[in-house]
Amino acid sequence: MKELKEILYKVKIAKVIGSTSISVNKLCIDSREILANDLFIAIKEILANDLFIAIKGNAVDGHQFIEAAIKLGATSIVCESIPSDTQNGITYLEVNCSREALSIISSNYYDNPSEKLKLIGVTGTNGKTTIATLLFDLFKIAGFKTGLISTVKICIDDNTLNSEQTTPDSLRVNYLLSEMLAKGVKYCFMEISSHGIHQKRINALTFSGGIFSNLTHDHLDYHSSFSDYRDIKKEFFDNLPKESFSLINKDDKNGNFMIQNTVSKVSFYALNSYADFKIKILEKSIEGMLLKIDQTELWTTLSGKFNAYNLLSVISTAILLGIPKDKALEYASLLKSVRGRFEYVIVNGITAVVDYAHTPDALKNVIQTINDIRTGNESLITVVGCGGDRDSLKRPLMGGISSSLSSKVIFTSDNPRSESAELIIEQMNSGVNPVDFKKVLSISSREEAIKTACQLASPKDIILIAGKGHETYQEINGKKNHFDDYEIVKNYLTKII
């Protein structure tokens, strides 16, 4: 239990009604109507002496639940507008932005845990999960107690928790960091989404470093334009302290933009440009790559040019955090691919690749990686869909990319959510060039699409199943049904051959 005035440190308060010298049992936020990667905070469970924070969401305004929170026992309220009908014995605190206040209050409540470990944020469109997870794995190999906050999972050293958002709300983030400290964690690697930045979930966190992977078309259902999406990403680097570092992909045209206003120490990594950290691909196959860093050769089981970038950022970060270069390379050689990121299985000569690629650029990268590996005698059969209730502008783009770069493509459902899978597929088909029409099949059932791909494949052919990666469910009309691309393709290949 903490005193209210204690956890209000640094909060910009416009107006106060009541006393701040009262005890707060815990903070309460309620996400009653939440969409993926959105924050709608209202009321969940209010107990006596709880602080209720009313936040305006994208669909629900938490302010309408203030009265209900008080009835359940809340004794203090943080809000953007104090109700006209206030109650005796209740403390009301008016702030300009509840989201920002929540970030600061959460950090104060848990005694600012981000200041007491090395917190590294990873942002960009593609590669965030892979980079953060590989960094976690590398530092575990190096013998450190390490934390991970990612799209796929949350790890507190050896303890693994489920992840519901790329960047959790600020209350949960600070709780997780405090738990990490209690377990002796020294380093934590965290994915930073544009939603998380925009919704001020990370505002009060102290980062020791930030990594920029790349920036391509994504989340334009949420952001008004690409420039808006880019500017939000930039805010992360704008706010890094001078004691921290920024590690930037020099080959991405948006890299220099990200650091225009940063006071952090900037380092660059690249394959094609002059940079502080460079890497060269010597050999590549489905099983991995032979890389050269300075004069040292390194074999990795990771495949593809995009993974060369990911691995280089991991090695560079390890060096920036004080791990000797030779040790960083040694540990990097032991790293394995991340679940659902270019994850492959070979059954009787047929290779199936499962990848999370759900943006046009990511899809293009993974297909080009496969095309660079295959000799031309093998066919590439791509199974791909696009998510419902998300950016519809990328659907024709992904349809055009997959059909032009594959031997055959099957358009199917992804997570259609509340949309018609057939309508989404139609939009994907609209991006197909006439010359590629003959390559395209449309099968709305994802399982049937995967089964068909397996039936069409011959030995040495490659099947790419894109879009869902690590996800073990398919969301249709509000219901999540068990669905694992890797499990299903392996099963059908075993049955068919």
Per-chain topology:
Layout: E1 2-3, H1 4-7, E2 13-17, E3 23-24, E4 27-28, E5 50-53, H2 66-72, E6 74-79, E7 91-95, H3 98-109, E8 118-123, H4 128-141, E9 146-149, E10 153-156, E11 159-162, H5 170-182, E12 187-191, H6 194-198, E13 209-212, H7 226-238, E14 245-249, H8 255-258, E15 265-270, E16 277-278, E17 280-285, E18 288-293, E19 296-300, H9 305-320, H10 325-332, E20 343-347, E21 350-355, H11 360-373, E22 380-384, H12 394-405, E23 408-411, H13 421-429, E24 440-442, H14 446-456, E25 462-466, E26 473-476, E27 479-482, H15 485-496
Parallel strand pairs: 4-5, 5-6, 6-7, 8-12, 8-13, 9-12, 13-14, 14-15, 15-16, 21-25, 22-23, 22-25, 23-24
Antiparallel strand pairs: 1-3, 2-7, 9-10, 10-11, 17-18, 18-19, 20-21, 26-27
Helix pairs in contact: 3-5, 4-9, 9-10, 11-12, 12-13, 14-15
List keywords for this structure.
single chain; 497 residues; Udp-n-acetylmuramoylalanyl-d-glutamate--2,6- Diaminopimelate Ligase, Chain: A, domain 1; UDP-N-acetylmuramoyl-L-alanine:D-glutamate ligase; nine-stranded mixed sheet; 15 helices; globular
